[in-house]
Design a protein that fits this description.
Layout (H helix, E strand, L loop, with lengths): L53 E7 L6 H20 L8 E7 L4 H13 L5 E3 L4 H13 L4 E3 L5 H4 L2 H6 L2 E3 L9 H9 L8 E7 L5 H13 L3 E8 L3 H14 L3 E4 L4 H13 L6 E4 L7 H7 L1 H4 L2 E5 L8 H14 L8 H20 L4 H8 L5 E3 L2 E3 L13 E6 L3 E6 L19
Parallel strand pairs: 1-2, 1-3, 3-4, 4-5, 6-7, 6-8, 8-9, 9-10
Antiparallel strand pairs: 10-13, 11-12, 13-14
Length: 433
């Protein structure tokens, strides 16, 4: 039987395999401040004939709750810059990165972008990690006339800010958040009624990125007859995780759809479930299990088996540029391909989009970059195609569900009809320790 599910809430998503070339790494500050110089004001244009470096500023969570992601993003930006500089730069100019540590704080991220723009006078700005930080950061960029290309701010609230509605300066190269669990919902809908879950729980850490897709999944699964036994938004604080997980375990639902922001959230729920001798048949977390070795080292490869997560990229993605990036990452930082964090690809794609915009317009000019990225052009990145709508969402982002399976293997499982998908491991095996 063929199933059709016209349930997407914001965008029609298309899938395409792409190939491109660009490259990997540049020295950047790991914390604190370092200044960049330029021969012109950042919001305006710089002469293509100028050989001064193109200065790019970013604020990243190198400490605090989002530090795992922030460090991975830093590596992704570095890898991109290294490749660009090795190839002769952009318009003949080298790239210079300045990274400030926001300590995962919305207040500090605002201060950092004010510093980068008004004190360091960077030519361009790249986004931070998380929708929680991207919203206020993008407002600073808008007030100063900067394009704000980012890879980890896909929550609806990021695109709906008054500043972006007025200036349209935000561009997210990654998958919009709202629909990213729909392949899992469609999978449940495709099962015979006798094989579908009967009950589900929806614990959600309070976060503008994590919650909307879980809430949409709850609405759709309820419409399929899956009874909700638990649904709650809790503070995104470690002290709240275990009590919430304990409550979920008491209901023993068939499905857990966790609105998570990071590895510690998922790890805490997994540990509490194991302590309560409860294993859900299906366990999908919005974020965390896509962070490669950072996830498996925190929870154990055996316990990771069966855990699912949505994303638009994975290390074995059949994209020439992506495979090159993964090989360079492993050579630079060690580990294995399966352990490469998806944040690395998101950050690398930010650089690729900006590079293509500068090359196409022939100038390091924020107004021209904004206009070009809103022109309907389709760009190519390690994550696949990118095409922005008027709000700055990527309307052609790929949408997959991945699962950790045997032998510490992170594989694409949904949509089942997509090239490269393997069968879902169902039910999730019991905890291994």
């Amino acid at each position: 039987m063929r199933f059709t599910f016209p349930w997407f809430s914001r965008n029609v998503i298309t899938m395409s395999a792409v190939a491109l070339s660009v490259g990997v790494l540049a020295a950047c500050s790991s914390s604190g401040s370092s200044s960049s110089s330029s021969s012109s004001t950042a919001a305006g244009s710089t002469s293509p004939a100028s050989k001064t470096p193109i200065s790019i500023g970013a604020s990243l969570s190198l400490t605090g709750d989002f530090s795992t992601d922030g460090v991975a993003f830093q590596k992704g930006y570095q890898l991109w810059a290294k490749d660009v500089n090795a190839a002769g730069g952009i318009l003949g100019r080298q790239v210079k990165l300045t990274v400030l540590n926001d300590a995962s704080s919305p207040n500090q991220v605002v201060t950092n972008y004010q510093t980068l723009i008004n004190s360091d006078h960077v030519d361009l700005t790249f986004g931070p990690f998380s929708s929680l930080l991207t919203g206020p950061a993008s407002a600073v960029a808008a007030r100063n006339g900067y394009a704000f290309v980012e890879g980890a701010g896909g929550a609806p609230s990021v695109f709906d800010t008054p500043q972006n509605q007025a200036d349209h300066n935000v561009f997210d190269v990654s998958l919009p958040a709202a629909d990213n669990l729909m392949p899992f919902v469609n999978y449940i809908a495709s099962l015979p009624a006798s094989q579908r879950p009967k009950t589900a729980a929806y614990p959600m850490a309070q976060d503008p990125f994590a919650d909307p897709p879980v809430q949409l999944a709850q609405t759709k699964l309820q419409a399929l007859g899956v009874r909700t036994v638990y649904s709650n938004v809790f503070p995104a604080e470690p002290s709240a995780y275990t009590p919430q997980a304990d409550q979920v375990a008491t209901h023993a639902p068939d499905v857990v759809v966790l609105g998570s922001t990071d590895v510690p959230t998922v790890a805490a729920f997994m540990k509490a479930f194991e302590t309560n001798h409860y294993t859900p048949k299906w366990f999908v977390a919005d974020s965390g299990p896509d962070q490669g070795a950072a996830f498996t080292s925190a929870v154990g490869a055996g316990n990771a088996t069966g855990i699912m997560v949505p994303n638009a990229w994975y290390p074995s993605y059949a994209n020439t540029a992506s495979q090159k990036m993964v090989s360079e990452y492993v050579a630079q930082y060690g580990g294995s391909a399966a352990g490469v964090n998806a944040d690395v690809a998101e950050a690398y794609a930010v650089g690729q989009v900006v590079q293509q915009a500068i090359t196409a317009t022939g100038a390091v000019d924020n107004a021209k970059i904004i206009s070009y990225l809103h022109s309907g052009v389709t760009l190519q990145t390690v994550q696949g195609p990118v095409k922005f709508n008027s709000s700055g969402e990527n309307t052609v982002a790929q949408k997959f569900i991945f699962q950790w399976q045997k032998a510490d293997s992170f594989v694409q499982v949904l949509p089942s009809t997509a090239t490269g998908s393997v069968a879902v491991l169902n039910p999730k095996p019991s905890w291994s320790s």
